């Protein structure tokens, strides 16, 4: 596991963007796993900037987002599909048909998660997954629990996770859906390369537990310790307890 600390969140985002751009240049048909949240916004900004400058071609890439709220449609303001359209998909030349996000409004969620897993398999698996980390240690929406789901599944969100997403729902955490669909932990860990981006002092405690503490499903991000190819990209604030 390589941990690299940068002076600011912006520098960390630029470093993560450079890594994505390097992999994309080497392998134009890259299969990427992508996160939502506040952390990746500057990373997506850097990728969009690179695309506008002719340094990033997404025309052959495929992306799979980590998660989506149940009951929130692709056009809804609070959906992660909308987040991705705003911050990345509409701003680069990634074909819409290869920009995959779980459908939180699918009538049969079991069929939806099975479809998603099949799509990832058909794409040849994830080459590179970019992750954020929840303050409770979640990866995607794999919340801390006595056991975790290996493959994509439906999950009940914890109140702290709903609070962290309140901004997407008029600042009201009670408006944040109680359920979500998430890529499974084994699907995430089957990526050939993993990059975890963490910025800000609010991540310092959980980052230290995840990277230095015991491997436990109570801190899902601690399972990254078992992955052979992980880079941790952090700013100084998030690295405070390492
Ligand atoms: P954040 O979310 O980037 O908004 O802190 C990270 C996460 O919950 O994975």
What does this structure look like?
The chain has 242 residues and is an alpha/beta fold. The chain has 7 helices and 10 strands. The protein has helices spanning 9-26, 41-52, 80-87, 109-122, 159-164, 185-189, 204-212, and strands at 2-6, 31-34, 62-65, 67-69, 99-100, 128-131, 153-156, 179-182, 193-198, 230-235. A 7-stranded parallel beta sheet has the order 1-10-9-6-2-3-5, with helices on one face. 2-phosphoglycolic acid (PGA) binds next to loops.
DSSP helical segment count: 7
Bound molecules: 2-phosphoglycolic acid
- Largest sheet: spatial strand order: 1-10-9-6-2-3-5
Shape: globular
| Integer-rounded radius of gyration | 16 Å
Q: What is the multimeric organization of the chains shown? A: single chain
Task: Compose a concise summary of this entry.
This protein is of the alpha/beta class and 242 residues long. The protein contains 7 helices and 10 strands. The protein has a 7-stranded parallel β-sheet, with helices on one face. A 3-stranded antiparallel β-sheet has the order 4-8-7, with helices on one face.
